[in-house]
Design goal:
The protein has seven helices and two strands; from the N terminus they run αααααααββ. It has a two-stranded parallel ribbon. InterPro entries: DUF6973. This is DUF6973 domain-containing protein.
Length: about 170
């Protein structure tokens, strides 16, 4: 219930122009949007469970949450459409989040990078698992492993490939 309150409070902070951008995304893909909303709640819940101290700041838990978020959006959407359409929607939704709720440049770089890590993980696992049989646990375990090798992002032009990144606590 707390996660829904956080989302509701965030939506209340949006300007009319930003609400229109969000509605364009929602109405262009209503089923994907429902899946994306569910993925948002699920990723918050799992990040709270596994990284209660760092998922809501710029720590390792935030990196885990962002990458898990894109994995889950893509996974749920690919159950009702093609994996490529699911990936496209995941990118649109997560990029829009960064536009609607802007951060400092380094934080934005971190979030966008970790979102891409999640999409890459989905693509990596896709050839070995039929999209209908994906489970959340596949991503959680892989991403928990990635947190052990996560890198500290210090400059906007840093490039850590497919590693999770976070800011100093």
């Amino acid at each position: 219930m707390r996660n829904i309150q956080i989302i509701f409070n965030a939506l209340q902070s949006l300007s009319f122009e930003k609400i229109l951008k969000l509605l364009r995304l929602v109405f262009s893909h209503p089923l994907f949007s429902i899946m994306g909303f569910y993925a948002t709640l699920k990723s918050f819940s799992l990040a709270q469970k596994h990284f209660s101290k760092t998922h809501s700041n710029n720590g390792i838990g935030n990196a885990f949450r962002h990458s898990l978020w894109t994995c889950l959006i893509t996974m749920y959407c690919s159950k009702i459409s093609s994996p490529q359409k699911a990936l496209d929607y995941s990118k649109k939704m997560t990029d829009l989040h960064e536009q609607l709720f802007p951060n400092q440049p380094l934080e934005t770089k971190m979030d966008l990078h970790n979102n891409q890590v999640g999409m890459n993980l989905f693509k990596e696992l896709l050839p070995g698992i039929h999209r209908q049989f994906f489970e959340t646990s596949f991503f959680v375990e892989k991403l928990k492993q990635k947190t052990k090798t996560a890198k500290i992002l210090e400059k906007v032009d840093d490039d850590f490939g497919d590693e999770l990144v976070y800011l100093k606590d």
